[in-house]
Amino acid sequence: MFTLYNDPKKETSEAINSESALQSKAEYIEPSFTTANISIDKQHKFDKVRGLHSKGISIKQIARTVKLTRTTVRRYIAMEQLVKRQSHSTTNLDAFIDFLIEEDNRGKTYRDLHKKIIEMGVNDKYTQFCCKMNEIYDMQPSLRPKSTGRALV
Q1: What local confidence, expressed as pLDDT, does residue 145 receive?
Q2: What pTM value is reported for the model?
């Protein structure tokens, strides 16, 4: 049996017993494209909060264990799935996606494509552009350009 402690460095930690890894059933989690910019740490804390809550542990105890505020713990419990953070600024990049995935643009670098669409009127930063392009290529791997660099041995 595994024992989870609030803080191993503290002397007065309270033990929380959890099920053995062998006894628990493996669950299949549907992959989602909406979690593109969620950090691994945040996703882990979200999963931990949901798991501890399903075992009947109090919100206050979960907050101490995972080191989050009780408000955040309540919010995570209410959520079905951790959602992608929304950008504060709006962009018109979506109008140019068809242009970006055209056959003519397959061999070009992100930097070249970004310069071209800036000239066409996109109000987007390079980092946002790269994230969006990676999202597009992850959904449609056949669109990703072939590597032209040397192979490192």
Answers
A1: 52
A2: 0.41
- DSSP structural state of residue 67: T
Any residues with CB less than 8 A from the CB of 20 and at least 6 apart, and which?
A: 1, 2
Q: What is the pLDDT of residues 36-90, one digit of tens each?
A: 567 889 999 999 999 999 999 999 999 999 999 999 999 999 999 888 776 666 6
DSSP letter (8 states) at residue 3: E
- Using alpha carbons, select from 17, 5, 16 the residue that is nearest to residue 67: 5
One-character DSSP codes across 26-61 = P------GGGTT--HHHHHHHHHHHHHHHTT--HHH
